[in-house]
UniProtKB/TrEMBL annotation:
Pfam families: Glyco_hydro_77 (PF02446)
Catalysed reactions listed for this entry: Transfers a segment of a (1->4)-alpha-D-glucan to a new position in an acceptor, which may be glucose or a (1->4)-alpha-D-glucan
Taxon lineage: Bacteria, Pseudomonadati, Spirochaetota, Spirochaetia, Leptospirales
Location (main, coarse): cytoplasm
Source species: Leptospira biflexa serovar Patoc (strain Patoc 1 / ATCC 23582 / Paris)
Designated name of the protein: 4-alpha-glucanotransferase
The entry's keywords: Carbohydrate metabolism, Cytoplasm, Glycosyltransferase, Transferase
Subcellular location: Cytoplasm
GO cellular component, one term: cytoplasm
Amino acid sequence: MGSLIRVKQRRAGVLVSLPSIVSEHSFECGDIYSLYPLCDWAKDVGFSIIQLLPLNDTGFGYSPYSAISAFAIDPLYISLYKMGQTTRSRKKEIKTLHNHPNRIRNEKIKIIRAHYESHQKEAQKEALQFLETQTWCYSYVTFRVLYETFEGKNWWEWPSEFQNLSSAKDYIFNEKREEALFWVYLQKIAYDQLCGVKLYCEDVGIFLKGDMPILTSRNSCDVWEHPDYFIMDLQAGAPPDQFSATGQNWGFPVLNWDALEKNHYRWWKDRLTYLEHFFHLYRIDHVIGMYRIWAIPKEDKTAQKGWFHPQFGIETSEFLNVGINPKSMEEKGLIHEFKPNHYIFYWDFWKEESYQSLPEETKAKLFPLSQLHITAEEKHWREAGEKILEIFDSFSSMVPCAEDLGSVPSFIRDSLFERQMIGIDVVRWTKSFTTGEFIEEDNYRDNAISVLSTHDTSLVMDWWKHEGDLESKLQFFFDRVGKPRPETEDQILEGLLEFVFQTKSIFSIQLFQDLALGISDVVENPEKHRINLPGTPDHSNWTYRFPILIEEFANNFQRNFTIRKLVHSSGRI
């Protein structure tokens, strides 16, 4: 089943946010059990890939991309039903479109704790056996117990005796042993349940695709345990672009690749090895960050004053050689000394009033300096990224898929193409570089995943109704192929699904909500069914719950027949 040759053929699949798909055996939100009826349905309609968003423990937060551990599974996803627990949700039908993850997690933990205490000897034995093979769990559990004790406070604000990992571990596993082993036990259950799903999927010919976030929360076990793996005075993000004049500041510390290399990338190897217990493929989040990342000073709120890291920078002598004092340019807010005698130019510095007011002869000397090392830097970034991706390949037999959305510089696009890395093409953004028009199915990249939406975008029906020019969309997706113009929302959605499955891309994986043919609320009010709106508060996202049970969804003959027909006619399996 793990053979790359078997995976790398024309396939269709579905992407789900696990807590959103509630099963009749779920406890208030989707859980690991939900994947069983999902798998059966996927098989029935001709899909052979199920992709999940990250399952990492988010602590008191919400975003799976801002987890408190790069390894631990969120206890939220443990199936009480699979544990043999008879506790049911308070309501038999779904009343609202939102989960309350912290409350649900706490309720689940309370139920599992009662089971743990009534089977303590056996449960602790299982926990200790798990610890023997999964040593990352020692530091995670130490962190998790302290994180609970101090109610989610940042680890650097904890009492000084808990700043030292070794003494903190000793304290938790000696003084709080029962509590520590309970948190290990939670991980053991989650591990066993996910491994069980992988086996079940393999038996019916479904491949599971996981997600590996590139970054981790500053207030996480990993940063607490390995601060040397991170550059703590920088935070990661993205530069300003047409979508955001101030760029994006994610707040995560920047990875210290030099320190990771000294330890033979052990942290990454352990992460990938653990992920492989559950998945056949995996998504490399923000693959551009493997080559270079937008680094912002820790104290800044926006991303405007950042730079691409790592960077050589322009040396003091290179400024002086053309008769410019770099300190004077720094005072004007055009450049920044990011390490002794080395400067970076701020993004769009030439738009600043202080640049525009410079004498033309000074501008003529200053601007070329900003481009001075670009060729050498791109060569360096490319080599660095390829080295990292090569190492990832050596650590795992999972098939890597790169999240290569956004402004991807040509040297990275060329690199990913030459590496035959599977990328992602979102239909609404996949347009001709020359004309700006949508591109036809046969012109999509072979080595990519074609999608209508992602977890960070609006649903495709929201895009269709409210974003961009409707007439040009109708002409391209319907008139061009001689299809009658759609009269209903379901006809629009079916036409878009037909297009995305027909693309040349090796995989076509659609967000679960974009497959909701016949479910009027999702199709007519897609804005209510979005998972995440980037740049908005954490707690207003990541709580989405699909309006009907997965079993009810899976039993709709007409929808299944339509999807099966679309998949089959596209030559996908």
